[in-house]
Amino acid sequence: MKKVIGYTLLLCSTHVYAQKHINIRVEDVSKTISVLASDSLQGRKVFTPEIDKAAQYIAEAFQQAGLKPLKGNSFLQSFSMVSATQESLTAKSNGTEVDPQKIVLITSKPQITLSSHNLSIEKITATDNFFSKAIQFAASDKDLLVVVDPAFADRFPRLSMLKRSFFQSAASVAFVLGDVDTQNLTITASHNIKEHQLANVVGILPGKKKADEYVIFSAHYDHLGIGKPVNGDSIYNGANDNASGTTAVIELAKYFKAKGDNERTLIFAAFTAEESGGFGSQYFSKQLPPEKVVAMLNIEMIGTDSKWGKNSAYITGFEKTDLGTILQKNLKGTDFNFYPDPYPDQQLFYRSDNATLARLGVAAHTISTSKMDNEPNYHKPSDEVSTLDLENMTAIIKAIALSAKSIIAGTDTPSRVDTSDLR
C-alpha cells in the first residue's frame, strides 16, 4: 500500500512539475495579445487593411517560431469571396405577388430566375439551430429552396448578413419564410456582385513517425472593426474575441517547435471571417483530407475566467468524441480542469470554427472559458486587453499544451464524430 501511495504521489507531483515548467510565459502572451488587440489594428475587420496587417503579424510569428507554410512559400492561405448587393427581387406564387421581405437569395449571379419546380427543397424546423443550419445550406453546391419555419420570423431578416460575403458558386440558395406557398414559386432577382480577397494564416510542424496524421490548433483572428461608439470608443478591439485564441495558437506553435518531439504533424491555423459566417475555417477544412485529421483543438475566448473560476475551461461537444476524456486524463495531478460545455442550449459545438471538420467526422472541438450567459464585454468596444486575466490565460494555454501530449505523441487517437444525424 505504501508503494502504491508513493507512486501516486510521485505521478501527481510529476504532472504538477510538468505544467509549471511548460515554457509559455505570461510576458510573451501579453506582448502578442497587446499587438493583436491594439487600436492600430482597428478591430481586425474583414476586407480592411488592418486585418491584412494582423495576418502579416501572425505569419511573421509563425516564421520566427520555425514553422513551415502548409503549401508553397507563404503562410497566407488566400482565397476569394464574393458579396452581393441586391438591386431588385420579385417573386410570385401561383401568380400572386410574394412579399420580397420573406425571401433571402444567396447567389453569385448578377441576373437569375429560379423556379421551385427545379430546386431541391430543404427545411429549417423550429427545433433546429437556425444560423448553423442556414450557414450549412448557404454553402450548398446545388440550387436549393430552404423553407424556414415561421417560428424564426424575427430572425429571418438577419439571413441577409450571409450576402455580405460567401464563396463563389454556380449554385443559388433561396431562403423562404414558411408561410409562403412554395409549390409554384418563381423568384427573379438582380444583384451587384463584387469579389474580395481573404486569407487564413497557416503553418505546420512536420511530424516524425506519424507525419501523415494531423493535429490542428486553431483560432479565428478577425473581429468586428469600427462600430457604434460606446462611451466615446468606436474600436471593437476583440481582445477576448478572439485575439486570446490567436495568441494561444502562436504561443503553442513556439512551444511545440522548441520541444521538437511531435510524432504527428501539427498544423497551426488562424482563421479569417469567423464573424462573417465561418468562411475561413470552411475554406481551410476543404484543403485537407478529413480522414488524416486526428484532432482539432479550436481555441475561442479564453481571456476571462470560466464559470468555475481560474484553472478551468470547457470543451464544446464533449460527449461527441472521447477527445475531452483524453485531455482530462493527461491533466490528472494538476490543478487544472476541463469540463463539458455548460451551455448545451446554445449548441456551441456547431457554431465555431471546429464545425466544418466536425461535420466530416473529425474529433474537432472548441476550448473556451466564455460565460455565454454573462460576458459583459462581448462584441463591445470594452473588449480590451485590460479586461483580461493574462495569468489565467497563460495557465490555460499551458494546460492545452500538456493535455494534448498523448495525441501529439501518437499514443492516443480520439474517436470520430458520429455524423449519421447530420445526413
TrEMBL record:
InterPro entries, per the entry: M28_fam, Peptidase_M28
Pfam families the UniProt entry points to: Peptidase_M28 (PF04389)
Domain of life: Bacteria
Boundaries of every Peptidase M28 domain copy: 200-401
UniProt-recorded name of the protein: Peptidase M28 domain-containing protein
Classification lineage: Bacteria, Pseudomonadati, Bacteroidota, Chitinophagia, Chitinophagales
